[in-house]
Amino acid sequence: MAKTEKSFPRNFTGCLTCVQVLNIMVLLGFMLNYALRVNLTIAIVEMTYNQTQIADTNQTIHNVTEHPEHIEQTRYNWNTKQKNLLLGCFFWGYVLTELPGGRLAEIVGARRVFGYSTLIASILTLLTPGAAALGFGWIVASRVFLGFCLGATWPAILPMASKWIPAMDRSKFMSNMMASSLGAAITMPICGFLIAHFGWESAFYFTAIIGVMWSVAWFAVVYDTPAQHPRISETERNYLMKVIPQDSNGKGHMPIPWRGLLLCPAVWAIIFTHGASVFGYFTVVNQLPSYIESILHYDIHHNGLLSSLPYLGKYLCALASSVLADWLRRSGKLSTTAARKLFTGFAVGMPGFLMIAQAYMGGDRVWSIAIFTSALTINGAVTAGYLGNGLDIAPNFSGTIFGMANTLSSLGGWLSTFMVGELTHGNNTPEQWKIVFYILAGTYFAGALIFVTFGSGELQPWNSPNSVRKDEKHEEQPLNEEKA
What we know:
There is one protein chain. 68% of the residues lie in helices and 2% in strands. The protein has 484 residues and is mainly alpha-helical. The protein has a two-stranded antiparallel ribbon. Helix 1 packs parallel to helix 5, helix 1 (18-47) packs across helix 9 (179-198) and helix 13 runs parallel beside helix 18 (398-424). The longest helix is centred in the middle third of the chain and has 31 residues, at 300-330. Residues 21-459 form the Major facilitator superfamily (MFS) profile domain. This is Major facilitator superfamily (MFS) profile domain-containing protein. Residues 463-484 are annotated as: Disordered. One of its GO terms (molecular function) is symporter activity.
């Protein structure tokens, strides 16, 4: 049974605590993270000609859209393969910085890694319309560099959580990462409105300006450890320093125990399950607007709203399941291992069944939207499952583990766009999309099975290789230690 532990005290002062401010900034940061990413998935519908529009040249063509406002927009004659290449090239850069980003955050801190990466990504987004005007190669390059910047952000947050968030509150903290889905849910309809009234360029300008504003606020209010924060109360600092093991110098310079890490089945369970789950997620993220437009035949006004529904559902499920998982662990009703396996099996396995249903009923507008929304909603429960599992088994190297997992998932994100492009190029029909849904179902099932079989919530001995000695009597006790 899991060791019980009191939750984080909420009212040190009459103001927000530094932990609460951190939660808010991380939530907003991940909302922005996906806003900077998914703006293209909705904008590309209006950036290019669809199958019913005629283009006789490969050069930029100006066209008056069918919107009532008669906004004159620049459209590009990119074919299906080019569009999927543009959607997928983000992952070329994204995959390069996952592992380095996690390790760098362990060494120099997440404040700089997460903050500067987001700031540079916001500036790149501001320049995206200009890059498209220069040529297809330029916008591809800008998306690759955007991925390079944002790839470092996700693994960077786990080392910060290991210094600020008590063990029994970490599932709920990890739900802030799923605010990326909330960001997409909000960004999709807003961008749809902006595009309809001001042109597709406005989608990039809007998200970029918000990104720069957030970056300034991040550096003003967030610090890597309680000891470094200049405005934290003594009460809050003392509490956090007591309940969370802290490095004496506040920096993670501990060498990575590669042998123990690479031979650990629990680590590989996280890596493969994360890859399978995100493969399915990214396929929907990148392809849903195009599917709605080409197969379900909704226009841009409805596209943004309908595309946002799965993201909203995912965040709400992430928040609810994380609160439930923390309560089950804190009360001792479930061990950490049991909780992680239960929620992962549900969050990754159930979407597999829904993808099979999508293959049979995906041609119906109502059923299709309902199934997509349900699948991604349920997938939000990964925050209570494998997503923060690295903090359970090895908090000192949680950034490295997440970086490894997200590297594989990033390759899957690129592979998903390549797969859809190859399967639908010149034959964008419901029958071809059925193949896509069957592949997604198999991937989801494999991910759930691997974690339920090999996953764990117990602290690994190689997490503190320098302190695991027989003669050590004051060995650090993890907050999430489980007792029989």
